[in-house]
Amino acid sequence: MHKTSSLSDLGFDAAGASSGFFRPVADDSTHSSSSAPHRRLTKVSVIGAGNVGMAIAQTILTQNLADEIALVDALPDKLRGEALDLQHAAAFLPRVRIVSGTDHAVTASSDLVVVTAGARQNPGEARLSLLQRNVELFRKIVPPVAEHSPDALLLVVSNPVDVLTYVAWKLSGFPASRVIGSGTNLDSSRFRFLVAEHLDVNAQDVQAYMVGEHGDSSLAIWSTISVAGMPAFKSLRDSHHSFDEAALEGIRRAVVGGAYEVIGLKGYTSWAIGYSVASLAASLLRDQRRVHPVSVLASGFHGISDGHDVFLSLPARLGRGGVLGVAELDLTEVEAAQLRRSAKTLWENCQLLDL
Hints:
alpha/beta; L-lactate dehydrogenase (NAD+) activity; stress response; three-stranded antiparallel sheet; about 40% helix; six-stranded parallel sheet; NAD(P)-bd_dom_sf; globular; EC 1.1.1.27
């Protein structure tokens, strides 16, 4: 079946096609077009056209965060189908150029590259085996992406995100400030959602952070909970005697298990991570200087050894240059010890990868 994405594919000559509709403005040599200011176009590339990658691309598209979106996947037919499906919505969206290809050259000159591709864990497969397979996959993705877009920001979404962000950093040769993992940005949103539902307020008015590893050992920092700028944790404990340590751990487990619940019900997660990554893209590309809990190079923070180049989530200020700074959280000694244990486990995994 002939594949069509434009009238040119149907045999129509595109050269000068618009001349019958628009009359050119008379040339004025004193105001030549070459001297007219041009807004620099923004390009975002998404590596991996699965459920997560397409949710991210669709959300970035509808939020008008890019002038061009490039999609890359190893499956050419699925990739073209996804690209056409988005292109066919052109009449309902801001004008965005959508390109796709199996060759990473299509990502050239990207401002932001989002990596969602990753190997899935086979039944009974050891975690280290899965990590090794993902490292081999990243060896095929990251170096060509870095070569085609040497000034890009690299945002890793693939799991296990903290270790793979470290892998992307090593393979890209980029400074750590330009390699970021999606980390616990979505976990923190789930945390905020639960608190907001309990207090009957909008989740946007709740501040609450999950930090550390994106996974079972992530930490809920209870002292960070605030509503409309007012500290909320003490009030919650004073008004609800059930907020004991066991209850708090139950809430943390509910946050950590949120993804598993969604996967158990629909088979995968997509929309929430799409919005989460789009929020990161907006902060980065628009230089918003917003603070997000994302996976960053954490050596030297909270007693983590300077010699351990490990990535885990801490609240970071994000802008056009990437990570502009990391917040020094006021952790309890118990929380700091948990963070260091998590960092030690991640570092040991990273050391097994021979990078």
